[in-house]
Design brief:
globular, 5-stranded mixed beta sheet, alpha+beta
């Protein structure tokens, strides 16, 4: 049996960290907070990563004397939000390892007693003393305009920093209360004498609870902030601002709380019912497969037909994440499958015939959950890279007797939570696309797409893309099948996670530029779950030999 290689990321082609700038000083970041005891988990997560990156350094913690101004929510909302946070969004405290919070420089911003605001001139001198290149504002009230003259890269802030007050934090509540498909996240910058400008914006699948929506997206924000800091440290220009800045939402009025409470109760009741069904061995998320004729640039989901259920001693009715593979003149279908009530899925295989799918039984089973059986060929060898995030690593298996016998060939990203990974060879270079979840309390593989240049299926050397994660947000980041090269046009299927549903829709993305410096793609098509009646979602696509397959979630 070949040795499994423990591939870990390398910093760059020369072994040096990307953009480390051996002759360039690190970018200095100061954090503006509401109080020396008001650190949130996302603050600490961002500071931890800054401390680990040689391109970056923490210059100071600045404490705002009047961080909220007159912003204050109603007593009713502040009470409800506190209770909801304790019940539905409580997170363990993030414990930094790369820095000691007590040893960081803490400076109160100087207050002008006459005006009751920060003293502009004294603030400017303080920032010059810290040497900060930019300040991350985490408070609704920011720095005076004069103080910004000391910051080459300005004052940065997320939109959620504008949506809290002295007694409550209401970011994320408006989309949850209105049941909007997604919740926006924007990072913007303010320079002296200029209007705020959007650096980057994205969106995330709205959670059923405003408090949970708030906590979940803030955790995602730490990764987005670090990506943009590294871009500045590498002296890479920001792309054109993708969106205008929306006005900050006001705190929810007390009159809206009864209706919100009723909606929240219905959601909690639905979740309880789902848990009961799962314990009874009945899975309310019923996934099945649809087959049709066509390729990724021509397929019509309206013409697809459902693969009929084929329960046998070795086959179950739940099927998802299908991959097609042609071998010896036949077309095979590999897919995730599991019985109602199972906690771990395995990989099954069948052969496509004129009459449909002929089940051939089990292809791969492990003591942990398996899904997303990406099967591919390299030379004479056939490989499978199933999703193995439950094992906290990526695994590649080599086929020894098609299609039922496989041996572990290589591993990579040990200890990391990676999902829905694919390999693709483009212009003689191998690329790994994977959905990593960098998380503390909220593991989620739908929001970060990471790209690595690799040495092929051995995964012995992984060189991370400089702009990882190259895509952020729940609408486009998660992979949804293999990557296709059709006449030089590169297509990546991706999931659209919105409306509070995992796997709501399917996108076809066209990759326009891919190298270790730049990643650019655009959405050329979106498939919603309306091509057949009574569907709730569709989240995976594959094609081979003039046929295509996708999965869909049925309503029960």
């Amino acid at each position: 049996m070949p040795t499994a290689h423990n591939g870990q990321p390398h910093s760059g082609s020369d072994g040096e960290p990307f953009g480390a700038g051996r002759d360039r000083p690190p970018l200095k970041i100061a954090i503006l907070i509401a109080g020396s005891d008001r650190f949130e988990n996302w603050h600490l997560m961002a500071m931890e990563e800054i401390s680990r990156d040689p391109r970056l350094t923490l210059a100071a913690v600045l404490v705002h004397p009047t961080p909220f101004g007159s912003r204050r929510a109603s007593f009713g909302f502040s009470t409800v939000s506190r209770l909801e946070r304790r019940m539905l969004a409580r997170s363990p405290r993030f414990q930094p390892r790369a820095f000691d919070l007590r040893k960081l420089r803490h400076d109160p911003m100087p207050l002008d007693r006459e005006t009751g605001h920060i003293d502009p001139e004294a603030a400017r001198r303080l920032i010059e003393e810290t040497g900060a290149d930019l300040v991350l504002r985490t408070t609704p009230e920011g720095l005076p305009n004069l103080a910004l003259t000391a910051l080459p890269h300005g004052e940065w802030a997320f939109n959620f920093s504008d949506e809290w007050g002295a007694n409550a934090d209401w970011y994320g509540y408006a989309p949850a209360m209105r049941q909007e498909p997604t919740t926006p996240l924007a990072l913007y910058v303010r320079h002296e004498g200029e209007e705020p400008r959007c650096i980057v914006s994205t969106a995330f699948n709205t959670k059923f609870s405003g408090a949970r929506n708030n906590a979940y997206i803030k955790e995602r924000a730490a990764a987005l902030f670090l990506r943009e800091l590294r871009r500045v440290a590498d002296q890479v220009e920001a792309p054109t601002a993708p969106a205008d800045l929306a006005s900050a939402a006001a705190p929810p009025p007390t009159a809206a709380l009864p209706r919100y409470a009723a909606t929240l109760a219905r959601h909690l009741g639905s979740r309880a019912r789902k848990a009961v069904l799962e314990r009874m061995g009945r899975d309310p998320a019923m996934w099945t497969l649809y087959l049709g004729q066509g390729a990724i640039d021509t397929f019509d989901p309206q013409q697809a037909r459902q693969v009929p259920p084929t329960p046998t001693a070795t086959e179950t009715s739940i099927k998802a994440d299908p991959f097609l593979f042609e071998h010896d003149g036949a077309c095979y279908l590999f897919y995730e499958t599991y019985s109602h009530g199972d906690t771990r899925a395995h990989i099954a295989v069948g052969r496509l015939d004129a009459d449909g799918l002929t089940p051939l039984g089990e292809a791969l089973r492990c003591p942990y959950h398996l899904s997303y059986p990406f099967v591919f060929r390299d030379g004479q060898d056939i490989f499978m890279m199933p999703e193995t995030h439950a094992a906290r690593r990526i695994e590649i298996w080599r086929c020894t007797d098609f299609p039922h016998k496989w041996e572990l060939y290589a591993t990579a990203l040990e200890g990391q939570s990676a999902a829905d990974s694919v390999l693709v060879r483009l212009q003689e270079k191998w690329w790994l696309f994977t959905n990593l979840s960098t998380f503390h309390a909220y593991e989620d593989h739908c929001c970060e797409l990471h790209v690595f240049q690799v040495d092929g299926p051995r995964l012995g050397r992984l060189v991370p893309h400089r702009r990882n994660p190259v895509v952020m947000g729940s609408l486009f980041a998660r992979n949804a099948g293999r990557i296709f090269d059709i006449g030089g046009r590169i297509y990546r299927p991706s999931q659209q996670n919105s409306h509070g549903i995992y796997g709501y829709g399917l996108n076809i993305m066209e990759i326009e530029q891919l190298d270790l410096l730049t990643y650019r793609e655009r959405c050329v098509r979106t498939i919603l779950p309306d091509f057949q009646p009574e569907l709730l979602g569709c989240h995976h696509f594959d094609a081979a030999g003039g046929r295509f397959v996708l999965d869909a979630r049925l309503s029960l």
